[in-house]
Amino acid sequence: MYRSHNCGELRMSHQGQEVTLSGWVQKTRNLGGLTFVDLRDRYGITQLVFNMDTDAELTEKARKLGREFVIKATGLVAERGSKNPNRPTGDIEINVTTLDILNPAKTPPFTIEEETDGGDDLRMKYRYLDLRRAPLQRNLFFRSKLAIETRKYLADQGFIEVETPNLIKSTPEGARDFVVPSRMNPGEFYALPQSPQTFKQILMVGGFDKYFQIVKCFRDEDLRADRQPEFTQIDCEMSFLTRDEILATFEGLTKNLFKEMLNVELEDFPKMAYDEAMERYGSDKPDTRFGMEFVELTKESRGKDFPVFDNAEYVVGICAQGTAETYSNKDLKKLTEWLQRPQIGCKGLVYVKWNNDDTIKSTVGKFYSDDDLKGWLSKAGAEKGDTLFVLCGEKEKTQKQMNELRLELGRKLGLMDPKVFKPLWVVDFPLLEWDEESERFHAMHHPFTSPKVDEIPNMMNGDHEAMKRLKADAYDLVINGVEIGGGSIRIHDKELQSKNFKLLGFTEEEAEAQFGFLLGAFEYGAPPHGGIAFGFDRLNAVMNGVDSIRDFIAFPKNNSGRDMMIDAPSPVDEEQLNELYLDLKPIEKEES
Amino acid sequence: MYRSHNCGELRMSHQGQEVTLSGWVQKTRNLGGLTFVDLRDRYGITQLVFNMDTDAELTEKARKLGREFVIKATGLVAERGSKNPNRPTGDIEINVTTLDILNPAKTPPFTIEEETDGGDDLRMKYRYLDLRRAPLQRNLFFRSKLAIETRKYLADQGFIEVETPNLIKSTPEGARDFVVPSRMNPGEFYALPQSPQTFKQILMVGGFDKYFQIVKCFRDEDLRADRQPEFTQIDCEMSFLTRDEILATFEGLTKNLFKEMLNVELEDFPKMAYDEAMERYGSDKPDTRFGMEFVELTKESRGKDFPVFDNAEYVVGICAQGTAETYSNKDLKKLTEWLQRPQIGCKGLVYVKWNNDDTIKSTVGKFYSDDDLKGWLSKAGAEKGDTLFVLCGEKEKTQKQMNELRLELGRKLGLMDPKVFKPLWVVDFPLLEWDEESERFHAMHHPFTSPKVDEIPNMMNGDHEAMKRLKADAYDLVINGVEIGGGSIRIHDKELQSKNFKLLGFTEEEAEAQFGFLLGAFEYGAPPHGGIAFGFDRLNAVMNGVDSIRDFIAFPKNNSGRDMMIDAPSPVDEEQLNELYLDLKPIEKEES
Question: Which CATH class is domain A290-412?
């Protein structure tokens, strides 16, 4: 037997009992004749005491214990002289009578504490040590519990969890697939799923009515800090329901998760059309924890001989409260430079300060009278002490830039309280995006998304321009500016699906080769259906007010897609490649 | 709104209510002026009635409905004239007032009934239709519920579910890996996990204490009927526990699953050493629903001038009760031929019949007296009316053959009741298997399995022959002759692990390149740990008394590893291969 109790459970009520504990040495302290060892496991920390007067040999042994040694200790539970109220086991200690070293440890390359001194690369390489730290343990326990609560809620609602395959078929639509050569079918490849989309639709055609799965998905994309080549989705699909019934189901799920996990009661989720979100926030995933909404000033700024505004398609302002007196010229210069970085690409930043003494100060003061500027301020709902920031240019681009500015000001002004959660359904997305470069349409959501029902005649018969205006029955769940989930009502009619494939540039043969099974399924009694997928890694991060998903993943990959701990990917044997009928091409720098 | 109720919930208490149902047309019957439509969904079947006298147009519409049309119908719940006691909704019917065809259907290529007329290939290709059949729906609901109960039990026991990565590192040990070329790391490959073995051990080193995961695993092996290239495991690992504590935990899980799913109370699981299982049943996964245990007759059969037995390393018998008078000479001839097939490879079959009139009849009667033969019968516990079957030859081979014979007789004699469940822990497996062909040891379980603790000195210092005798702290859970789970206490000491790698033929460099992270982890405070993995697909099949796992998998692959529905694997674009720096070799018939 390695332990009678764990390191988190002993209390005064155990006083006098003989117990055995096992765990890791967090630290040792020698105080005169006494040696104290903090013994740690997943459940807590318990203090062990060794007394030189009682057992000198044992105490000498204890003194030699290094950090992270794995030991087993038996002794009597005793009341502590000086109690530690910050620790659940702080009332007691163990007077040790037997000590076994189960495994010694080299000195760890970084400290195993709440805050560590280890850099990212070191922590990734020694992930097994990083995982011993309380913050990572909390994160992964949170994740495990979130999965349990998700499954519980959905099962209670009559959903069935079905495992869909991981070795599927490569399709050029969407992101890049990871492919898997098939030894038994030489020259052919499986693909790892970017999502179980077609399978969950097939399950609806198969009559499963309510499906879910917490499932790994794969995308071979160039990675950013918040992307991983493999990620986890809560994937759901339902039959015979309208959009609003589907949204109500997943609003229920989300509310339940916040209540169970964080004891937060979310209010009913507002719905906002995509077009409205773009006008008010310049983003299809607005952070609605704070206002600072867009105010269009295109008309108001015209005709005053300021050519920059006169020639701009779009002029837009936002009001930053209380910044007129607190933002120095240096602050404003820095903000302007931040906006001028190539990632954002603003030409410049116009501001209008309404000082507390009622004076107006603006970078465009020589073109506009104080009355003009007060008109703008008033339209933006500004008050004395506020600053109005104004950007202009091509509309779509300027909306994006202003969205970045709004978020940056929100961060600077402390308007993004990580304890406040503001969910929002964004609905009525465009169905198709026209890509000028490739001269073709892309699906804004994916090729299986249905247009809104009153758009179907336009889609079947409309001209090219009408296609650009089609609205989809698609929806995103946004919380605090992060897209947590996205879904749509799906097409369940073969003609409509074929038309959509055609609009997306598939020939009939290509559509048949890649999605023939789905088109076939639609001919054998496909029910109306729709669904959603939640980004599970991201949901964890957002619920914890954290930006990066990496610390909610036990074994994440770095930005080159490498697992630093196991050192993967890696070369494989020639023999293995031969069995797969594959040759490696010579690897050179790409030509420019 | 598509429905106010589902097709399984309406009862007499709903009489008079207006309801709306949606679903699939199971069948239509025209009886005079009335047309009846059975409407089906996941939840049940409800009878719709159309009356020519009340609404001729509507009834005409209903008469044209084909099988598997998807419809929506609104009407009043009414008591049925002739009730159907076999159907939960059999007391009522719906007098339909509105009918919408949501989606028509072509005539399905096979019947959507409890028993279908579709062959395997057709059912795989039209899996979405096969999935509508009640048996498959029951199987997948069973599977979903089994996963829920598994998670519930393990979470209640303090286990945390952690997702381990799917893009890992290829290792030549064990079965063949599926590999995934990495675009971002040209010339390098990920592998799909055969199991999360090293990751769960790393989680123990990381202090997670109790881990589980229901997880997809992958093996690129030639497929048999009960194998799939991707399969699902209940994967578990625990720290600071002895073998028997670990077995008790998973015995608890198994008992709980049988209780919750089948209302079966399993008795405590016996433990049997591998050596004993081989002696008594000739198998490390004996079906203990019936006896028919092996009786060694090597000594008893010697010295009577029957050279076949005199020269045999091993002579063994089993007693088939009540077959002396019921098995004809023709039956015995067929049984002998069955044993002589190359898959089993017996030279012949000896029998000793103890007839009800107390006479003895045997194929070896001219070598042995009735007293000799009665001695054998007595040793085998035979009674009048029984037959003793005897095989001989090289011991290990003969044990396997006799195991096959025992199972065949068990099937023929109806001794394998699918409603009876006999679990068994098989323990103390050999650590290493010597492979004569490659002249090297293989790990019987896997390279991370610990020898039993008192074997460690032998392992570190023993000679080659001693290595063959080493016992592992490994265990299998066997139910009704099927290996449901397997696991072991793991090595947690770097020296011992290095020694094991060396015995398995790894050079130090190879061990370091492939498992350096694990050897490193063992130096930083690895706790004693062990675990188990249950075959989840197989557990579903065994609990339902079914041999094949295929009907418990929503989208299985055929024996060539193909998904017949989506037609995967398939060729990929040249461009995609270029991005991966891969060339396809010309594919020819292999040379012999």
Answer: alpha beta
